[in-house]
## 1
Amino acid sequence: MEDVVTHEKGVEAVLIKSWLEQYYSSDMEEIIDKLSPDARDMITSPAANQWYPLELMKEVYTVIYEVTKEKDPKAIVDYGRFSAERSASGLLRFLMKFIDMNKLIERMKAFWKHYHKGGKITASELVEEAGRKKRIVAYHGYDAGQAACLAPLGYLKAIAERAGAKNVKVLEKTCIHKGDKVCSWEVSWES
């Protein structure tokens, strides 16, 4: 596996297009117009099984953030939630009823390679304190731009809730765009 992510599976582009159409249709034309021809093609006609250069995803996240930040600064966080809810459908949604958040984080590490060429996801050991469980989830070698760092806030929270965790909190711990070596988030919950 390479040290850095070079490509991301088209599933992400499909989800972004669907999310934009559902929640930001009034901004979609402006977003599309600001994208390069390659990024525009990826978002307007995404192929779920195609691998797209991470630089295109970075461009898409950046443009979406720039267009939506005034009226909805948490739009990318909401996209993360949308992505988790759409990804956790069918059999996976059923299975999540029987797996706790701690095990789900372990499974996320295995799923990474199916959606990313390069990089990896790691998680700290489970810590329990003051009635809460927590783990630090980190993305290594993944740089889809600073705006993309907002998506895991919504994604991790939604996945935890689907796994039955209560009172879920997700906090950014480190960010490569602030000089850190990895982007990481503390996920804490009550069982």
Note: The chain is about 50% helix and 20% strand.
## 2
Amino acid sequence: MTSNDNLMLMKNESSDKTSTDNKQVHENQQPITIKKILVAIDKSEFKLKIMMYAITVAKSLGSELTAIHVIDKSSLKAAIDVLGFYRGGKKEAYEEAYEDVLRKQAEQLLDEIKILGTKEGVKVATEVLMHSDSIPKEIIEYSRKNSVDLIVIGTKGLTGIEKFLLGSVANNVIAHAKCPVLAVR
């Protein structure tokens, strides 16, 4: 046996050991299944891109797709307080009407993804979530309660003072969600 033969033999033995180690790792790995996808839709100019990513992933994986729009209770309360102040202090009279307007706007927003999903052969369930104290917490809680396997969210939503006041929704969801998050930018 020459020294080259010894080198080859040692190399083959080493690669066999690595191969065996990899087999053990792969045998213990369970396949990842993504059956339920949640997409959080906002009113940003990037919503179409977020919708299309969610639809494409759902179609590719044969997953259920649910789209939600979360209305923040604090911004709702602030708007009603301002309306009530300028209309003579009768904010209760405007609260229900304003909530109806916001709900209808949110439903119209979510209808867009239903239409796009239908064109791609993907059924999209939708839900408007109102009276939330925190948009990220509401998204995370909804995903937990509904056993969501993947959240799709945009990273470019509100800007300026709105982002400062609300914080970054995407960053909070990414940091605290119990399932993977696909951030679309």
Note: The longest helix spans residues 91-119.
## 3
Amino acid sequence: MMTYGQSGNVQFPARRLGRLWLLVGLTLTLVAFGLAELGVDPVFVSAWLVVAGWVAAEWSRNAWAWVFAAVAMAGHAAVALGVAHGWSHAHALAHTQAVSGFGPGLYVSYAVVVLWVFDAIIGACGLPWRRLHTLTRGFVAFVVFNATVVYGTWPGKVLGLTAFGVLVAVWWRGRQPGLPSGSSSRAS
């Protein structure tokens, strides 16, 4: 199983697993769109897919979990723009301004999607990308934290902050997600 930071070619089983994660992410995005027909908020569901994928990727240090999380983020952006804003960038910009007080924050969301997907592709191909990945992880953590605080419902804020707290504890105890296997500072 490929973990963060490995370089070299991805072996066939890893590619197969990567395709599976990609299909799962795309399928769940389509499910989130379909939930609108059932009265469930697909933006909420897709946002939690992003958080769950992000936590799983950071916890497991699995590059394909990172791919899933990146696909979930791209799916969430599509669901939010399509369902909540009727594919209107102007409406999304006005909504971002009304909710957060910073309309250009929408461009930050676009940037995190592009950077995260690019980072996931580079990592899934087994190319060395440690500096880019470290930057991406920090940017994603910043955006997920702020999105949870700004856009989340109170139960969502509590769950999101709890998930963030778990990751801070993981990072603090020295697990250091993002390092190649064997490079962790964990005591055995």
Note: The chain has one domain: 12-172.
